[in-house]
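Key result, reporting period 2: structure in, sequence out.
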């Protein structure tokens, strides 16, 4: 993982390939003074959405049409197969395909054909009490994510279902063929046995179950993190729901989740860490559950989720502007920490675990919460650091401090970018997901207030 900078000629070659290998607009001509013309904000947003969409379109695993776990333009991969399919990242990718339709990158017919293929693959792939595993092979068989993680992964399944239900809402009033796709998605959703993952009726949801190792991974999911959507969907299930007590006692830890703190002049709203003194988590916590779940106007007995996510993003921004470690490049235009590739392998970057690594998805996917700050970062990347931009948008991570980056991408980092930017621009996914009647019933059951 600790590779040095890619050779200059290789980087230039990747950059000249273009953002998507097809019809994306490029700055190809200079003006009379030799200056590159500046893109408007709209053009920049279009460009990054197009590039990141292409990860899930041109870059998809070809048999399933779903998302590859990673794409490395240097063609250096870990020991396992480079075509491994990621379930959570595929959920994000299904939504990115809808960005493609709405922004006229592809036609509705093209999207429908791809989504039909993906849903058929998911119907026939390995499932464990209705839940998909973290990773699948193109054959549809599970491949272990770790030693005992060869069964159902409920968090990854929740991210996938969030995407599937959004697709269902998009197509359910369409042609007969589109309605059939929506019906198939409904059956997949109804097959997930959320209540099984309470481990014989405990008041908490468990992340994993394996047919070989049962509950040996022993990972109850409680306390604030990226998994709020899992609890909402589990309560909303029309066939295998969990009770409100599972949410209150498991997720909210009998109210312990409200033990917030103040950091950089902002309240965190909830306790991001149960077992240490870390004030905030990596920024993907403000993204994954909220690709479909609309935080605007969303509140329950524990938090106002718009305030929570906005504060989370602004804390990261203020921390990077303050730059207490004096890392090269940090500032108003270059900020954002989250889980990504790193100078020390894959790391969960956050203010108290900062390695001098900026992960572009952090600021870009926070566009709804910090539009001005995120837009400055986007412009900085494309106008001042364009060697960090490749075929599928900004590379996963970089460190100006260490003079380090790799021309590599991860699905779970590229996926939130086009989706959250679209929520910022049009509210598309928030509108679609929050229209689902079963989701609304689940939110009602848990005591949420939300915008109509």
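The corresponding designed sequence is given below.
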């Amino acid at each position: 993982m600790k590779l040095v900078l890619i050779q200059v000629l290789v980087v230039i070659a990747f950059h000249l390939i273009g953002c998507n290998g097809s019809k994306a607009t490029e700055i190809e001509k200079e003006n009379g003074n030799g200056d590159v013309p500046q893109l408007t904000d709209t053009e920049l947003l279009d460009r990054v959405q197009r590039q990141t969409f292409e990860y899930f379109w041109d870059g998809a695993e070809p048999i399933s049409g779903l998302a590859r776990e990673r794409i490395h333009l240097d063609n250096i991969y870990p020991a396992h197969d480079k075509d491994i399919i990621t379930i959570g990242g595929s959920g994000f990718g299904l939504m990115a395909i809808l960005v493609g339709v709405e922004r006229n990158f592809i036609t509705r017919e093209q999207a429908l054909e791809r989504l039909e293929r993906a849903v058929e693959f998911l119907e026939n792939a390995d499932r464990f009490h209705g839940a998909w595993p973290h990773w699948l092979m193109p054959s549809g068989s599970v491949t272990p994510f770790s030693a005992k993680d060869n069964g159902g992964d409920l968090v990854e399944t929740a991210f996938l279902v969030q995407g599937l239900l959004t697709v269902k809402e998009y197509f359910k009033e369409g042609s007969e063929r589109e309605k059939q796709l929506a019906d198939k998605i409904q059956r997949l959703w109804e097959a997930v046995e959320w209540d099984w993952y309470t481990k014989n009726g405990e008041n908490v949801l468990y992340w994993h179950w394996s047919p070989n190792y049962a509950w040996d991974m022993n990972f109850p999911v409680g306390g604030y993190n990226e998994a709020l959507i899992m609890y909402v969907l589990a309560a909303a299930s029309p066939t295998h729901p969990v009770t409100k007590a599972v949410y209150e006692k498991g997720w909210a830890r009998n109210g312990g989740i409200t033990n917030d703190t103040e950091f950089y002049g902002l309240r965190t709203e909830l306790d991001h860490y149960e077992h240490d003194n870390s004030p905030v988590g990596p920024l993907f916590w403000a993204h994954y559950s909220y690709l479909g779940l609309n935080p605007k106007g969303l509140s329950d007995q524990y938090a106002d989720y718009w305030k929570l996510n906005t504060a989370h993003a602004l804390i990261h921004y203020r921390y990077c502007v303050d730059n207490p470690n004096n890392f090269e490049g940090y500032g108003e235009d270059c900020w954002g920490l989250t889980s990504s590739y790193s100078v020390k392998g894959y790391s969960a970057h956050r203010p108290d675990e900062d390695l001098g690594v900026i992960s572009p998805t952090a600021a870009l996917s926070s566009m709804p919460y910090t539009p001005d700050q995120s837009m400055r970062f986007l412009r900085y990347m494309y106008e001042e650091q364009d060697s960090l931009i490749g075929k599928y948008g900004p590379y996963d991570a970089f460190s100006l401090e260490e003079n380090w980056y790799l021309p590599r991408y991860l699905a779970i980092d590229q996926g939130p970018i086009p989706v959250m930017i679209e929520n910022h621009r049009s509210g598309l996914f928030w509108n679609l997901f929050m229209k689902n009647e079963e989701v609304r019933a689940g939110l009602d059951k848990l005591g949420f207030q939300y915008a109509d």
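Residues 1-36 have pLDDT under 50 and may be disordered. The radius of gyration is 21 Å. This case is discussed further under Risks and Mitigation.
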